[in-house]
Amino acid sequence: MPETSRRLVYSLELMKQGYEEMNGLSVPKIADVLSLEKAGILQDYFDGTQEPSFHFLETYAALFGINQNWLKYGEREPFLTTEKTCLYATEYLNRIKELSPEIIYFIRSDKKEGNSGILLKLSEYKYTYFPKTWYISSHVGSTGETQIFEFYRLIEALKAQKRSVNPPYYCQGRIVNSKDFNNLFCGKIYPGSIIAFNENPWWDDFTDFNQSYAYAQEYEQMYGKEFIKAQETLKYLWEKIKERNETDLYKFP
Fold first, then answer.
1. Do residues 213 and 110 both lie within one domain?
2. What are the tens digits of pLDDT across the range 53-82?
3. Of 56, 70, 79, 185, which one has the greatest count of Cβ atoms within 10 A?
4. Is the pTM of this model over 0.90?
5. DSSP-assigned letters across all residues of the chain
6. CATH code, 50
7. Domain assignment of residue 79, yes or no
């Protein structure tokens, strides 16, 4: 089987892996979505009896958020993002506006370091993620503390803009094991497979650094001590900003 066909088959296997909604995805259905005259055209590409054009591979990759260079040439990882790396989460706000995602997912690793990142659902089959991840814990220096605060600012900005953006931003959270987290943000797995994990409001609870939703002990039981320490860092920085009378925290250019 030609390598291009192997990659087409492998990409479909990844998309159907661990994600119930994608189990119904088949060669005939994909052919229909791509407006091909008949399913046999796509089946020939998968079987390797016909060679797809580069234009077709680019169209197929765009539909599912696949790395075009991987699909065409086998370079790097299948779902490697094309988004740029930013130091602070708030630097992604304008890009989120541009992409206008259906859902914004805040993904957190279950390791104590609390590594966290952002995944976006762009359409029924297509996802992308921002390559930068952040430690939401005490395992940070001064720059990391600022990153924690900017992560908080992004969440609050999205909440504030939810009332004025049409369609409104819809946010969810997931906590996943460290292997899945690393594979997601390295582009090794289909991002949609993460959605199979249970919804978790950790991102919203994180902003509750005064523990108005729950007692600190409850948060510690749900998310661990490092989560509480990150909230303490957040509260400390918040108090410092209040002392400087910088109240317009969610205004962005």
1. yes
2. 999 999 999 999 999 999 999 999 999 999
3. 79
4. yes
5. --HHHHHHHHHHHHHHTT-GGGTT--HHHHHHHTT-S-HHHHHHHHHTSSPPPHHHHHHHHHHHT--HHHHHH--S-TT---PPP-SSGGGGHHHHHHH--SEEEEEEESSTT-EEEEEEE-SSS-EEE-S--EE-SS---HHHHHHHHHHHHHHHHHHHHTTTSSSPP-EEEEEE-HHHHHHHHHT-S-GGGGGGSPP-THHHHHT-TT-SSS-HHHHHHHH-HHHHHHHHHHHHHHHHHHHTT---TT---
6. 1.10.260
7. no
